[in-house]
């Protein structure tokens, strides 16, 4: 009984440590210039390590890592860059929007099973990553329509503007993931699988 508890605690510590490292990596990647050239449509490079971590460790660790990433991004970049307008907007666009990236972890078991069986898991990786990416940009879309409407071009509906910006960011990040997942397919598989 004690051995099992110790083993579980040790494993939890490994997952927490991995989550902390992935969160730090995602945060560091946020400082790389990531504009697409289209106003406010941006790549979020931290989504790639977050995808791998959520598929590797599952839903709960993925959600927790995303939540911590969102809080860090709010404190380190949001307050200083003008990305924080008020507490509700800050809550929706940082802890919530970043946290739901962890929904990618819904596919952890299925993706690992597919890899273990020697099947091509690329489609599953893309599908579950799309769930997390979509959830993130859905919350940005909602906040954009409500809070960022004054930044829309004159005469443009703020919801259409938010849809264009956040939909464009979702598509840009899905393309980035697709290209990396295809080019680095074998590496992705090795990173997702947990060695005992």
TrEMBL record:
Molecular functions (GO terms): thiamine transmembrane transporter activity
Keywords for this protein: Membrane, Transmembrane, Transmembrane helix
Pfam families reported for this sequence: Thia_YuaJ
Coiled coil segments of this chain: none
Transmembrane segments: 12-32, 38-55, 62-79, 91-109, 121-139, 159-184
GO cellular component entries: plasma membrane
Keyword Iron listed: no
Family matches, as InterPro entries: Thia_Transptr_ThiT (IPR012651)
Superkingdom per UniProt: Bacteria
The protein's name in its UniProt record: Energy-coupled thiamine transporter ThiT
Species: Companilactobacillus farciminis
Lineage, uppermost ranks: Bacteria, Bacillati, Bacillota, Bacilli, Lactobacillales
């Amino acid at each position: 009984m004690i051995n099992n508890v110790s083993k579980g605690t040790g494993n939890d510590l490994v997952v927490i440590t991995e989550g902390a490292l992935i969160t730090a990596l995602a945060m560091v990647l946020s400082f790389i210039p990531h504009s697409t050239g289209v106003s406010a449509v941006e790549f979020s490079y931290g989504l790639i390590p977050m995808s791998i971590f959520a598929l590797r460790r599952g839903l709960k660790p993925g959600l927790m890592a995303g939540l911590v990433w969102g809080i860090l991004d709010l404190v380190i970049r949001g307050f200083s860059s003008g990305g924080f307008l008020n507490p509700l907007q800050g809550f929706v666009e940082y802890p919530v929007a970043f946290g739901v990236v962890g929904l990618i972890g819904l596919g952890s078991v299925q993706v690992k099973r597919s890899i273990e069986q020697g099947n091509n898991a690329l489609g599953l990786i893309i599908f579950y990553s799309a769930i997390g990416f979509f959830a993130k940009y859905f919350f940005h879309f909602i906040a954009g329509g409500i809070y960022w409407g004054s930044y829309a071009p004159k005469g443009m509906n703020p919801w259409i503007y938010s849809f264009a910006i956040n939909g464009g960011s979702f598509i840009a990040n899905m393309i980035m993931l697709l290209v990396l997942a295809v080019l680095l397919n074998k590496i992705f598989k090795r990173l997702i699988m947990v060695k005992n």
